[in-house]
Amino acid sequence: MRVDEEDHPRHRLGLTRYTTNTNKMRLLADLDQLNEEQELQLYKRWETTPEATRRDAAALREWLQKQPHLPKLTEDEDEWLCRYLLACKNSLERAKRRIEYFFTVQAMWPEYFEAPSIEVGMAFSEYMWGAPLPKMLPDGTRVTFYKFSPVLAKDPSNMNWMMFYMLSLGYIELQLSTPGQPLHIEVIFDVENYTMGVNNSFIAHLGEFRRFVQCIQVALPLHIRRIHVINAPPLAIGALNKLVRPFLQDKINQRIVTHDNLESLHKLVSRDCLPSDLGGLLPHNMREYTLKWGDMAAAAAQWFNDRRWMKADLSSKPDCKFNTEFGIDGSFRKLAVD
């Protein structure tokens, strides 16, 4: 479903301030969007309406005005606040916490939220494949995938974990902020090429992974329905259990599914929504979708640069709460995941 600027359904329904977001929607124009019924279901699920959500967004803006350490938003950001509210189950208090966390991690760990140059991003795609897939699941969930490439398996020294985390967070932020895009994702991780060299590199950069997980679990409330692990050698299963799971919330751990074969994956993810090399019916393979997504990501660079001001002023924080919660020894396991 492509964007139609003249007669967009959300524009007619009053679901979003569409005219101010045309450029952002164009960035994801190659991806299916929620239809009218799916969009309205987001509101019905949390017992709210577009009008009530906009009123709550205005209340959030007013609250932000009173926080000395947080940026002051205008009506131009109301749509972003509405999306955040829906992702936070229409809870003002939950949205306040998540928004404060979001602005805080932007200030504390800005290296995770940079937009890499086109050249650097495309060079990295030789070693790590990943992209959102264009067709949603029937329930309106976006499917994304990642895979260590065969080239990386031959020379793991080329792995740039920070680049991987940066690009992943950038995509989540873009989807969370874009009207018409789902607030739920399922992730497929193909670890066929997870070699001892890749494993050693991951261990050496484990601190970067921990912060990445913290950003996802507390600051970006995109709902992770399931994480599918496929083509996993014993080494990858060991890394998942010993190095990854300890940093994840219990709810996320319960949503990880390992598959012995593609037939097992197809029972949970429709082949209509999968690339050809995962036994799917989409016209391209993972490598090709990575390159297509690279073009979209390059076009989003200006959007990310325009949002650099959206971060906390840590020097004005009225208490030291975040020093504990975001400290190097913090785990966030006490915080709830939606």
**Quick one: biggest sheet?**
5 strands, mixed
What is the overall pLDDT average? Answer: 86
Described by the principal axes of the CA atoms, the overall outline is globular
Helical amount: 40-55%
Q: Structural class of the helices, strands and pairings?
A: alpha/beta
Number of strands: 5
The low-pLDDT segments are 1-20, 323-338
Order of helices and strands: HHHHHHHEEHHEHHEHHEHHHH
In spatial order, strands of the major sheet run 1-2-3-4-5
Write structural notes for this entry.
With 338 residues, the protein is α/β, with parallel strands linked by helices. The protein contains 17 helices and five strands. It has helices at 9-13, 22-27, 36-45, 50-65, 78-87, 92-108, 118-124, 150-154, 161-177, 196-204, 206-218, 234-244, 250-254, 262-266, 286-299, 301-305, 321-325, and strands at 128-132, 142-148, 184-190, 223-230, 256-258. A five-stranded mixed β-sheet has the order 1-2-3-4-5. Helix 4 (50-65) crosses helix 5 (78-87) and helix 9 (161-177) runs parallel beside helix 11 (206-218). The longest helix has 17 residues, at 92-108. Mean pLDDT is 86; it is low at 1-20 and 323-338. It comes from Frankliniella fusca. GO terms for molecular function: phosphatidylinositol bisphosphate binding. This is Alpha-tocopherol transfer protein-like. Residues 138-286 form the CRAL-TRIO domain. InterPro entries: CRAL-TRIO_dom, CRAL-TRIO_dom_sf, CRAL/TRIO_N_dom_sf.
Layout of strands and helices, then pairs:
Elements: H1 9-13, H2 22-27, H3 36-45, H4 50-65, H5 78-87, H6 92-108, H7 118-124, E1 128-132, E2 142-148, H8 150-154, H9 161-177, E3 184-190, H10 196-204, H11 206-218, E4 223-230, H12 234-244, H13 250-254, E5 256-258, H14 262-266, H15 286-299, H16 301-305, H17 321-325
Parallel strand pairs: 2-3, 3-4, 4-5
Antiparallel strand pairs: 1-2
